[in-house]
Structures are given as C-alpha cells and as structure tokens.
Amino acid sequence: MNAVSPAPVADSTASTAVALQNTLLTPRFYTTDFPAMDRLDVSGVRGEWDALIADLRADNNRGHFIRDARFDSFDASKLTPELRAELLEFLISSVTAEFSGCVLYAEIKKRIKNKDVHDLFAFMARDEARHAGFINDTLKDFGVGVDLGFLTRAKKYTFFKPKFIFYATYLSEKIGYARYITIFRHLQRNPQNMIHPIFNWFENWCNDEFRHGEAFALLMRADPKILSGVNKLWIRFFVLAVFATMYVRDHARPVFHAALGIDPTEYDRRVLALTSLISQQVFPLALDLDHPRMVRGFDRLFALTTAMGAARARGGLGGGLAMLGLRARAAVTFLGMYLVPVKANTLPASARLEPVW
Asked: Which residues contact 35 (CB under 8 A, 6 or more apart)?
C-alpha cells in the first residue's frame, strides 16, 4: 500500500481540512515584507515591463474559464474509488496553490502604493482568483468544494523575504506552465485518456502561469544583486526543493497518472528539464538533472516520504522514532543532491520568453 496515498475526501469539510494541512508537500500561504515590495524599482527593465503589463491588462483569457456542456455530461460514477481519491487530491492541491497566490498577490496590491508593482499584483490576483474559482466549481461537482473564505482565515502563513517570494513563486509559476502544457499536449495526442473535462482548459490556463513567471523574472532581473553572490546558494536550494517536492507529490498519485496514460517518472523528467530550460532566462545556474546522484536522490526521497507516511500512520513511540530516522535520512539525501555540481548559465540580454512549448 502506498503510504502517501491521499485519504478519501467525502465532503466540503473534509476537503477544506485537506487544504488546511501544512506539510512539506502541501501548498502554503505566504506573507512578506510589504514596505520592501513598495520600494521595488523596475526602471532597469522598463521596456519589457511595460509590454508585460499591457499584455496582462488586455486579459486575453477573460472569456476562457467558462464551463460548458462537457462538464454537464461528465459521469463521476465511472471513476474508481482510487482514481476519484487521487483526482480530488490533485484538484484540492491545485486550488490551494492557486488561491495561495491570489491571497498573497491581493495583499501586496492592498498594502503598497508603487504603481508598477500594484498594477502587476492586481492583474495576477485577478488571474489566480479566476483559476481557483474554476477548480473549486469542479470540486463542487463532486460535493467537496473548498471553503476559500475559511481557508484565508485559518491557514497558517509563512513569512518570506521578497527575494525568497520571487525565487519560489517564479519556480511555481513556470513549473505550473510546464506541468499543464505537458499534460495538455499528451491528451491532445491521447484523447481516450481525458479522465475529466477540466484538462481541456489547461493550454490557456498554463499561459497565465507563464506570464506570471515572466513578471517575477523581470522583478529579479531589475535587481541583479539577488541573482549573484551568496544568493546563488539560495537559488540552488529553492530550485532543488521545488523540483523534489513535485517529484515526490506526483509519484504519490500512481492511479491518477496511470489513468492519464502518463508514467510519472518520465513525465517529471520532462517537466523538470523544461522548467530548467525556461529558468535560464533569469537564474545564473541550472541543476544537473542527469547526474546519477540526482536521479537516485529523487527516487530515494519518494521512498523515504512513503516510509514516513507509514511511520506516521503507525504512531506511538516506534512510529515517532522511525520518523526521526527517516527525516534525518531525507535531509542527508537532499544535501547530497544539493552538493551535485551545478551548470553555470550566462543570462540572455532579454528576459522575456514566449510559451512556445
């Protein structure tokens, strides 16, 4: 039995409880230094910035997130209990992540007067709210919608300095693009594996993610010091942490990926390689994803996480002692991966990219 398989979600109370969890694998809510955000200066990337803001203001996706007859005709009773559980866990994790962005972006917009930054976060909050609402409507079809208002009040918030927000959120947006476009392209070629109509919306959806990532790339390129010196060590940490979290989380959904016709290991390697390629627009380094220690490390972290789930379920003194040992082994594994030599990258003259994959 997979010890990290999702627990059954029976109703909205249970789904909200899942969204409230704070673990290494669940999306978190963040807060930051708002006065520092108010002092951001994008004059060094003004031309690219104004073009991006104009793109966001045009809101070409405004009519995209509208449900159609495909949702009405979807028959959830055809899903096996295992597939239903993993699909719901995927959707709850997704709505939590999208709503987390919405809450953070809306709070930044509310707290600052800097017009450049205010406008950016207003547009991104709009997009994330749209995404979260669309996913939550899908969850409500199953009778398990998340109480987003309660989530805002009850979820624990983690404080990150702006530069850490930039690293983590840039990666989240770009890896979100890579994940969604990879699934969308796969289902274009294999429509028989369309297990739910929501995946038809992934192309335009992931283009929103891509644009948001572009914004964080420009914020970082506008302040070169956060991409140099000791900050390279932090970038290295955040890239590895985000990549490892995705790998472990995806491998905990074997039934979901099998139903999509996707091998999670092959899928994750494609997504991580694409995200690594995209991130060369802003990060001065890239992980060596093909290094044997890195390849073994991802699998080992998943095995250790699975064992931690079993120890947690066992409980008691034995389970607690096992958890301590497993956490130590996971930390050693992560450190070994972190110490794999990275590949240096020279930043291109222009930070902007287009979602052409």
From this structure: none
